[in-house]
Automatic annotation (TrEMBL):
Keywords: Nucleotidyltransferase, Transferase. Gene3D superfamilies: Beta Polymerase, domain 2. It comes from Ignisphaera cupida. Residues 16-87 form the Polymerase nucleotidyl transferase domain. InterPro entries: NT_sf, Polymerase_NTP_transf_dom. This is Nucleotidyltransferase domain-containing protein.
Amino acid sequence: MGEKTINGDWSEYLAKAISEIEKRFGVEALIVFGSWSRSGGGEWSDIDLLIITDEVRELNPLDRFTISAELKKYRVDAFFYTFEELESMSLKGNPLALSALIEGIALKTSPRVMELMRKVKKMYVKKGRTWLILSPNTKQAISNSFSIN
């Protein structure tokens, strides 16, 4: 532990967590976000990992939390969402969704997640620690075409 980059111990932790996730779910996208995507994390940083899978649709929030807690042994903070949930969150300006989609490092993705990333990058800009909408007209135009299938 204590690696300053996502090499060595950190990449091993991440690989183990991803392997465990992919054994349980068909994964559409995996995106590392937070401090690891912005600056390479640090000794005390967990790896924030956004997992997009429609297979969590029927799971209640407590079950998702339990699965996420199981991945803590790899120093991974796992966030499970369906594509529709992520799309809705990003349209509403949810900071977790925006951080992942705009600043994140996609380890695995699909065409519709890539398109969502492209659209969200046009809608928002980060000023300090706050996400700002570029223009209400931009948001309306993009949200009118937001359903990506």
